[in-house]
Amino acid sequence: LTRYYANCQCRGAYPPHFTCGVWGFQHDFVAWTYYFHYNMQLMYGPLQATGDSDLCAGYYNMRGSHLETSRRIAAKMNRRGAFYHDVADRYGRCAEYDSDNYTPGSQIAMAMWRHYRYTGDETFLREKALPVMTACADFYLSVLQKGDDGLYHIHGTTAYEGNPPTDDTLTDRIMIRTLFGTLVGLDVPGKEKYLDVLRHLPEETYLTLDADEMKDGKINVELR
Questions:
Q1: Which of 6, 140, 192, 217 is the most exposed place for a label (fewest CB within 10 A)?
Q2: What are phi and psi of 166, to 5 degrees?
C-alpha cells in the first residue's frame, strides 16, 4: 500500500509533503507547507530498500537544486559551504528558527549518497550528490575550532528540534564522522583536512543525571 501511494505521488517535478501527500483537504489548505527533512527521510528511506529509488529522485533532485540558496544562507552566517535547514520550501528558503541545528545538511548529503549507491547513477553523483556533500563538509570545516587539547570542537549547536545549545553536540560529531569518512574514500579535493578532523574529534562524554532528572530509577519525563 505504501508503494502504491508513493507511485501515485512521487513522480512529479516536486515531491509530496510528508503529511497527507497529494491527498489534502476538502478546501484549499496545505498542512506543514515546508518540507521537514527529519520527516521526509522516514518517507523515502524505505523506498530505496524496496528497489523503488526512482520514487526518491524528485526529493533528492529538489534538495540538490537548493545548493546555491544554501550557500547564500551559509554566507549570511559568515560560514563557508552550504547550510541546509531541516525546514525549507521547494526553493530552499528556510525557516527562521532552529538555525543552530547543523546536522540536516550532512544528513541530506548522505541520503543523496545512498541514493547513488542504490542506483549507480554516476550523473546524479557528479552533478547532485558530490557538490552537496563537499559543500556541507566545507560548512563544518568553517565551524570547527581546534582547541588547546589539539581536538576539533563545535560550539553552541543543537541536536534536532528545540534542544538547548551545547558544545560538541553528539549528532554533529556523528554526522561529521559519517560525511567526512565517506568523502575520504572518494576522488575529491581536501581529503587531508577531512582525515585531520577525523583523527582529532573528541570522544563521547557521559554525564551523570542530576537527582531531579531521575524518578523511581527512570528518567523523569515530567521535566520535559
A1: 217
A2: -135, 170
For residue 203, the tally of other CB atoms under 10 A from its CB is 8
Output DSSP code: residue 116: H
Q: Which residues contact 82 (CB under 8 A, 6 or more apart)?
A: 67, 70, 71, 73, 74, 105, 132, 135, 136, 138, 139
pLDDT at 76: 93
Strand 35-36 to 87-88 pairing = antiparallel
Question: Cell 520550501 identifies what position?
Answer: 89
Q: How far apart are CA 134 and CA 129, in angstroms?
A: 9
User: Which residue is it, cell 507547507?
Assistant: 33
* 50 φ/ψ sector (left φ>0, alpha ψ -120 to 50, else beta): alpha
* Distance (Å) of CA 30 to CA 17, 82, 125, 162: 9, 28, 32, 24
Q: What is the pTM of this model?
A: 0.89
